[in-house]
Amino acid sequence: MPPDVLAVRPYAPADAEALIALFKGAVRIVARRDYSEAQVMAWAPDDIERTLFAARCASRPTWVAETGGTVVGFTDLEPDGHLDMMFVHPGFQRQGVASALLRQVEDAAGAGHLRRLFTEASITARPFFERRGFRVIAPETVARRGQALLRFRMEKFLRAPGA
Ligand SMILES: CC(C)(COP(=O)(O)OP(=O)(O)OC[C@H]1O[C@@H](n2cnc3c(N)ncnc32)[C@H](O)[C@@H]1OP(=O)(O)O)[C@@H](O)C(=O)NCCC(=O)NCCS
């Protein structure tokens, strides 16, 4: 997608509902190709608590990608360099949305003098993060509502400004 039609902006509380819907779609439709139905429903259940989700988004810098008034992706960055969430709308896959969001994360990390980003990538997201310079540290399995989900601890070292 041409960068001029994709805007990345800070999260606002009014986005919470749209982000929950996007999260469910990304997990249940896109990640479903790598995880079972039971696993995706444990990861993105029907009863996501809106207040808790909104509090999580508001507790750290969170960014939203938007095109033509539609929210098409979101991500975040915790103060220690942890990238917790990266989700793109099922209808806008492989159009550079996650890449634009990651550029925003890296800009913010640079401004905050962070040298290292790290995340726990799904099987689905691993190729994206590898393409963008992350490397796998180790696989791990997490439990969600009685389901075991495989994911990958990954990291990327950022170049010092001017290096
Ligand atoms: C992973 C995800 C965020 C990627 O978002 P995206 O906007 O489609 O990614 P981009 O278009 O910026 O991809 C950039 C590059 O990453 C690589 N890439 C992305 N998805 C890939 C895939 N499924 N397989 C192989 N390479 C992939 C490609 O090299 C791609 O460039 P190209 O399309 O020119 O070949 C998205 O697929 C998603 O939301 N997945 C489901 C939810 C999920 O698992 N989120 C992560 C939780 S940790």
Strand content: 25-35%
> For the record, what is the CATH homologous superfamily label of the domain at 3-114?
Gcn5-related N-acetyltransferase (GNAT)
Distance between the termini: 30 Å
The total count of strands amounts to 7
Instruction: Specify the CATH architecture of the domain at 3-114.
Output: 3-Layer(aba) Sandwich
Radius of gyration (Å): 15 Å
Describe this structure in words.
With 163 residues, the chain is an alpha+beta fold. The protein has a domain at 3-114: Aminopeptidase (3-Layer(aba) Sandwich). 32% of the residues lie in helices and 29% in strands. A hairpin with a 2-residue loop joins strand 6 (135-144) and strand 7 (147-157). The mean pLDDT is 96. It binds coenzyme A.
Would you summarize the structure shown here?
With 163 residues, the protein is α+β, with helices and mostly antiparallel strands. The chain has helices spanning 16-30, 37-43, 50-58, 97-111, 126-131; strands at residues 7-10, 62-67, 70-76, 86-88, 116-122, 135-144, 147-157.
Characteristics:
single chain, 163 residues, alpha+beta, Aminopeptidase, four-stranded antiparallel β-sheet, three-stranded antiparallel β-sheet, 5 helices, 7 strands, 32% helix, 29% strand, binds coenzyme A
List the helices and strands and how they pair.
Elements: E1 7-10, H1 16-30, H2 37-43, H3 50-58, E2 62-67, E3 70-76, E4 86-88, H4 97-111, E5 116-122, H5 126-131, E6 135-144, E7 147-157
Antiparallel strand pairs: 1-2, 2-3, 3-4, 5-7, 6-7
This protein binds coenzyme A.
